[in-house]
Each structure stands twice: as C-alpha cells, then as structure tokens.
C-alpha cells in the first residue's frame, strides 16, 4: 500500500508518535502543492462519508468558501454528491485568502510545505490556545506574546511555541 493513500487518514496521535520516533510518514519530502492536493482529497472523501459527523465539517468548509453559491448548508449536505475535488481546491484557496485555485497554485509552488498554515490544523495542538475571529487580531497577539499564527477558515489561533516545534518536526519528518 502506498503511503500517499493512507496519509489523509493518519491521526494526530499517530503523527505525534511519528515525530517522537524520529521517522517520516513518507519516504521523501512533499511539496506544498502535494500537501494541498492531499488535503483536498481528504476533504472530498470526508464529504462523501455516510455519517454526518465525518461529512459535515468538509461540507461546512466548502459552504463557507462559497463554492456552490445559492445553496444553504443543509441543501449542500443533502446534495453533497455535487461536490468535486475542484470545489475543495477552491475551498483551500479561499481559506488561504485567494479567489481561486489558479491564483493559489503559483504561491504554493513557491513555498515549502511547512508554510501551508491551513493544512497544519490537522494536528491537535491541545488546550489552551488563543483563538481570534480574524487573522489580523491573531497576528497582533502573536507579535506581542509570541507563538505561531495558524489560519483556520476566516478565524485564526496562536499556537504556543512548544506546539509549533512539534508541528515543524512532523512536517519536516524529523
């Protein structure tokens, strides 16, 4: 079985164990584009799941990004068979502050994978972290108190320094 097919299903506990053990979940470093594609694939698969608990977070992110305008959240959930991978690529683009995947792709190609903040939210950082309703508020707080800002949709959180170090270890595979 290829590692890329199981990566979206690795839990945060498993990623922590991988980081502590000092090994990488994949044999080679992945690019930021590949990381975004994996995240879109995981969201697409989750949206197709039969259970509300699994499908709704992915559907809610797509709805918030406005990928199928004119549908309410409940209507989009009932018609989630309409969602395609391109919709989740656009969702990730909108969450990162870009209008489309075409606008986001050149930026992804120029960044290392560790720079993709929204994909870092797959890890559980623990409690308490400081959550903010806007990215700008989180930046101001981080500048004053330290920590790393992680964007999550339109909101953001500031992660403590020790959580930032763990996240970096997991993303580097060290």
From TrEMBL:
Species name: Rhodoferax mekongensis
Protein name: Uncharacterized protein
Lineage: Bacteria, Pseudomonadati, Pseudomonadota, Betaproteobacteria, Burkholderiales
């Amino acid at each position: 079985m290829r590692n890329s097919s199981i990566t979206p299903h690795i839990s945060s506990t498993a990623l922590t164990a991988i980081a502590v053990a000092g090994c990488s979940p994949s044999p080679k470093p992945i690019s930021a584009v590949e990381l975004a594609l994996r995240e879109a694939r995981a969201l697409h698969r989750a949206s197709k799941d039969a259970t509300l608990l699994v499908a709704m977070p992915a559907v809610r992110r797509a709805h918030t990004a406005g990928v199928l305008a004119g549908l309410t959240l409940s209507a989009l959930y009932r018609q989630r068979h309409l969602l395609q991978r391109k919709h989740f690529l656009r969702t990730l683009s909108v969450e990162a502050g870009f209008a489309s995947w075409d606008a986001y792709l050149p930026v992804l190609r120029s960044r290392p994978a560790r720079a993709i903040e929204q994909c870092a939210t797959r890890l559980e950082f623990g409690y308490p972290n400081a959550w903010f309703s806007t990215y700008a508020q989180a930046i101001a707080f981080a500048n004053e108190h330290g920590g790393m800002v992680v964007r999550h949709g339109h909101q953001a959180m500031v992660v403590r320094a020790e959580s930032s170090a763990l996240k970096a270890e997991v993303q580097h595979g060290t």
